[in-house]
Amino acid sequence: MVEHRDDPEEAGQARLEFAESMAGIPDAFQRLWTPHRMAYIKGDAKPADSSQQQCPFCVKPRVGDEDGLIVHRGESCFVVMNLFPYSPGHLLVCPYRHISWYTDADEAEVAEMASLTRTAMQVLMKVSGPAGFNIGMNQGEVAGAGIAAHLHQHVVPRWQGDSNFMPVIGRTRAVPQLLADARQALAEAWPTNRG
């Protein structure tokens, strides 16, 4: 547990605050403050329009792997860390082409997305030993796609008891590993990468 601290270097980090240390009448609840989640809630990371210039999945391949959180680069698709993960190691498999629909993907993209998804599962099993996976695509904004303009498939590792009241009631997820650390571990374990 991380107790409340006033260190300015910890600004923006999740922290646990005990009720007895807060102003007012103490109650039985602890508060897990996750201010970094506000960027997702407010849509700060969402592009202003659906153009390739604004699309994060078009921008990421143009920067270095560490800065772009890219785990692996393939021929027609790449694997990247989800900036707002549902659980540690949440990956996205994306084509390089800026297409919205799975039906717009060509045969090479479909084949490589499938292959990279399988490899992502194998690497995640090796690195973090999940008990299961959620794999899927949200097609269109109405279906829950955060970035509907660029096709991407989620590979979400799952563990027994990893989903509790916090995502449902508090709209908060506790993710115990930094994205950069997860990216490095997964990239190093990827069969065709050098790290």
The major beta sheet can be summarized as: 5 strands, antiparallel
Helix content estimate: 25-40%
Radius of gyration: 18 Å
Residue share in β-strands: 15-25%
Our count of helices gives 6
The tally of beta strands, per DSSP, is: 7
Distance between the termini: 31 Å
CATH class of the largest domain: Alpha Beta
Secondary structure layout:
Layout: E1 15-18, E2 30-33, H1 38-42, H2 56-59, H3 65-68, E3 70-73, E4 77-81, E5 91-95, H4 107-128, E6 132-136, E7 153-158, H5 165-170, H6 179-189
Antiparallel strand pairs: 1-2, 3-4, 4-5, 5-7, 6-7
Write a concise synopsis of the structure shown:
With 195 residues, this protein is of the alpha+beta class.
Question: Top keywords for this entry?
Answer:
single chain; 195 residues; alpha+beta; HIT family, subunit A; 2 domains; five-stranded antiparallel beta sheet; two-stranded antiparallel ribbon; 6 helices; globular; disordered N terminus
Question: What can you tell me about this protein's structure?
Answer:
The chain contains six helices and seven strands. The protein has 195 residues and is an alpha+beta fold. It has two domains: 8-33, no CATH class; 46-189, 2-Layer Sandwich (HIT family, subunit A). Strands 3-4-5-7-6 form a five-stranded antiparallel sheet. A two-stranded antiparallel sheet has the order 1-2. The chain is globular. Mean pLDDT is 79; it is low at 1-11.
